[in-house]
Amino acid sequence: MTEQNLKAVDIARMTGATKGSVSQWLNGISSPGGKYIVSLTKALHCDANWLFSGITATPRNAHTLNLSHENTQSTTKLIPVISHEMAFTWDKDSNHSSLGKDVLWEHGPSTVSQQAFWLEVVGDSMISPNGPSIGEGHLILVDPQLPAKNDCFVVAKFNNTRDITFKKLVIDARQTYLKPLNPDYRPTEFNNECQIIGVVVEAKYLF
After folding, report:
1. Confidence tier at 65 by pLDDT (50, 70, 90)
2. CA 72 to chain centre
């Protein structure tokens, strides 16, 4: 806040929170709820993880999260950043060579498959008041070739609405759910209209 020349009243105005709530956040009495995280990260020019952990991110590679259970190598390769519309039709047989010239490319680990892609996160459903958070401003690395297992992060699509979503996959008592990290959102039951596009192995925040 000092670097941004912001006062408590400025934070309250920019987030819509009350002055009392902001005061409690600053004094460590309470933590901001999920509905305030996006506006807070924009006001403070930081990512959600910094708000809760104090870890400062570096430009273009801020606080990279490895979401897989495998070790990654230091070597990288260029991977396309595709739109949500493109992600809906993406599958295990999709080819990077079919992408147009206007597609952006970002570095990622060389261990992911040739079908892997970066996707921009929209919304605050994966922002948690406790633990890692992945909200707007993040790119997630999706690999369609990896098997989706319990407790992994996935990108899935709903064929009936043509929407895609980024959630945690939970398999419990033969029931499968897509679970948000933000407690303000409810889990969605995985049904016949749902299809997993790929497993998320990494997330990074871009300034």
Report:
1. low
2. 19
